[in-house]
Amino acid sequence: MEMLDLAFMQRALLAAVLVGITAPAVGIYLVQRRQALMGDGIGHVAMTGVGLGFLLNSSPVWMATIVAVVGSVAMELIRAYGKTRGDLALALLFYGGMAGGVLLINLSPTGSNANLSSYLFGSLSTVSSEDITAIAILAAFVVLVTVGLRRQLFAVSQDEEFARVTGLPVRALNLLIAVTAAVTVTVAMRVVGLLLVSALMVVPVAAAQQLSKSFRTTFVLAVATGITVTLAGTATSYYQDVPPGATIVLYAIGVFVLLTLLATPLAKRRARATEAEADAGTDGCGAPLPATRRPTDDVKV
Amino acid sequence: MAALDQDPVISVRGATATLGARPVLRGVDLTVHRGEVVALLGANGSGKSTAVRSVIGQVPLTGGRIELFGTEQKRFRDWARVGYVPQRTTAASGVPATIREVVSSGRLSRRRFGWLTKADKAAVEAAIDLVGLTDRAKDSVSALSGGQHQRVLIARALASEPELLIMDEPMAGVDLASQEILAATLREQVAGGTSVLLVLHELGPLEPLIDRAVVLREGCVVHDGPPPEAVGQHALPGHDHVHPHAAGEPLRTGLLT
What we know:
The structure holds two protein chains of two kinds. By secondary structure, chain A is mainly α. Helices cover 77% and strands 0% of the residues of chain A. Chain A has a domain at 2-197: ABC transporter involved in vitamin B12 uptake, BtuC. Chain A has twelve helices and no strands. By secondary structure, chain B is an alpha/beta fold. Chain B has a single domain, classed as Rossmann fold. Chain B has five helices and ten strands. Chain B has a six-stranded mixed beta sheet with strand order 6-7-8-3-9-10, sandwiched between helices. In chain B, α5 links the parallel β7 (164-168) and β8.
């Protein structure tokens, strides 16, 4: 394991683990709300932040965080208050963010499209120790929110109207999910790249769903999948000189396919077990029919 | 049935509301007393759901006032006293969740933050038991039938041990067997002193439980009193099924239009 001796690989692997934890942890709530592509939109918006960071000569990670948070809050407000043209407003935001990023980075003296591509597709060698500090702080925030408030976020994502009637601060929680998702995008940006961040938020959750029946299991399986594929992808990209982001995403899809294939025989076995149970109990076809309808009824319709 | 208290649990006075430019409620008065079971009836688009959703603060009023437990609705914070069953055909979302997990979220009104205690967990199990799904508590809600989904949603409302149940079409798309179970659940709650406001499309197996019916038509109350007798077109064959074997107590399943 010579790669562990290299400082940049240590940083890359640490970043990979943090991304593997945080991306599915937020992604599960987005999938639950059927907003699986929200991460993709935030990724586009974050590009403007990266460009701004280069232009102002400040840290692109922090600048991307700020812009992504502002963008995701705007998206959430559009979702909550916009009525008919919400999707158009989101499209404007997404493409505006992407165009803004490309423009700003070309305006800046230090930036170039080559620079931008390390943010778009992820890169191991460029993860600085400064980046690691930022990533660790942001990841801690994400884990605190997604695990600490899981009951509340679950309820809001499951049934927003019901959650409001329980007296939960639904608007605040929705904004918190949006902000957390934005933070996650910037955490994952250095490793998987902005264009593939969303995949790491969604694919492990989709893979975990193939086997699980409960939210808790889905959460744990998704995070485990996330860690596995980010570590494997990072290691592969060290040995094979392939881009880490793309490798990680392809591994995640591989896990999805594997679990889907595994799920079919498992579901069959479960169905057999349920059937056996139903035969033993009264839940089968022996339930009495309601006696109110009779063929001899002489009421004319 | 407990004697009706003077202080109502729900009091709606002259409520008006619009959706877009269309007036949906045009001066609705609605009162639910303690221990009372009130059915809100009416055709599609008559404003039943809007009325119920305005009571729980999901639809803003343009006029009139609403009080819950004697407190003005805008200042009402004691949501644990209210159990709400929204109009849904499914309890599932984009990620698998077990019946127990969904029902547990009903407990949030009692324990908004922090860990669930033993008492919370017991209340969740009791609510699942009330709707007869104990043996399936660990199953994913996506594996349930329509009637079972509705039972999960009702259990979720019951998990906070509410004094007032507000249900929006709990019988929509529910098979007869599940309707009977729901009716039995509701009967138990009412016997324990719970007040109920429910939107119904047809009275069905719940009829014997209902103390009072309020009928809406185009956003106005056109009837407030005992459950309506079949009149007009409802009395026609095909709307009113009186079955010979239940001569003593006619069973009406006709649609109210």
